[in-house]
Amino acid sequence: MGSILITGATGYIGRHLVARLVEQGERPRCLVRNSSHASRILPASKVDLVTGDTIQLASLEAAVQGVETIVHAAFVTADRKEKPGSRYEETNVGGTANLVNAAKAAGVKRIVVLSGLGTKPDKAGSYMQGRYLAEQLVIDSGLGWTIIRPSVVFGKDAPFIKGLVDLIRSAPVLPLIGGGTIRFQPIYVEDVATIILKVLAEPERTTSKIYTVGGPEQYSFREIFDALLKATGKKRPKVYAPTPLVGVGAAVMEAVLPKPPLTKAAMALFSFDNVTDIDSVERDFGFQPMSFARYLQEHGI
Ligand SMILES: NC(=O)c1ccc[n+]([C@@H]2O[C@H](COP(=O)([O-])OP(=O)(O)OC[C@H]3O[C@@H](n4cnc5c(N)ncnc54)[C@H](OP(=O)(O)O)[C@@H]3O)[C@@H](O)[C@H]2O)c1
Question: How far is CA 122 from CA 118, 130, 201, 293, 298, in A?
Fold first, then answer.
């Protein structure tokens, strides 16, 4: 498979990918910002930890030396509040530009990017515009590239689902943002890892492609709440929450809470249906992905 560098290795998708690569007998190099934190999350004796930060170009030089392929998953996602050193534009655009430049200088052949469904041009300086620019940097880099855009991811402690379960446990009523009609196509984290492994194993077929991937079912936001209420055995009334009002609430929570349940940037997820073709995974990667309903039945939340 050639030597692989994973950025965002300590993140939700990154750590599942690392585990799967190690299972296959690979020894991936992992770019981490804090090696003692990373040693608690990753199988430290079976990977090479390299300390670096994508917003500091000089810190990437050693990390990319001798690497054939980079899997880039180091982003500040919309569900996280910005803080010094973790800002959307600085990390998602600036960090990707640094990584691309370091990769080109070191002769890296290929970069595989973990992006998100619905990435498109948007207002200058917005979260979505930053994600779009990050993709463009990679497409224009001259490196071989593949972009994977998953819908929301589920699995043990998956951030999106965990946020909703925390809300079910703590809030007396559940807000149906914009009426709860926006649709999602949850995909299992292990299936996302399988897709990345297939992309790594088949460079000829998958280079210069953008893959939008989702699970085998689509759910409205209301139906996701219903599935999670069933899985947790809780009953909560759901109330219509107009999107502009929720946006104001998110801004207030972001101003006062260190880890707000909703951010202003995450509101972007509720402005379009987060779905793709129902057979996207089977068609492009030849396997049947896990159903969200079946996962909840078999594993609980
Ligand atoms: N999880 C989902 O539901 C989902 C769905 C669709 C698409 N995606 C996309 O998949 C990608 C990965 O998502 P995720 O859920 O795995 O994210 P995550 O859990 O928030 O992890 C982000 C990772 O990026 C690292 N990172 C952040 N800033 C960095 C920097 N400046 N330098 C180096 N590393 C940095 C973090 O390291 P630290 O440990 O040091 O913070 C962490 O390892 C993102 O592009 C996301 O949009 C995720």
Answer: 11, 8, 33, 33, 40
Q: Tally the domains of the chain.
A: 1
Q: Tell me the best of 5, 6, 7, 10 to mutate to test the pocket of ligand 1, counting ligand atoms within 8 Å of each CB and taking the most.
A: 10
> Is any ligand 1 atom within 6 A of the Cβ of residue 5?
no
From 15, 17, 77, 165, the mutation candidate for ligand 1 (largest count of ligand atoms within 8 A of CB) is: 77
Mean residue pLDDT across the chain: 96
Range of the domain at 94: 4-150+189-213+276-289
Evaluate whether 184 touches 119 at the Cβ level (below 8 Å): no
Tokens for 272, please give them.
Answer: 């379009």
15-41 residue pLDDT tens? 999 999 999 999 999 999 999 999 999
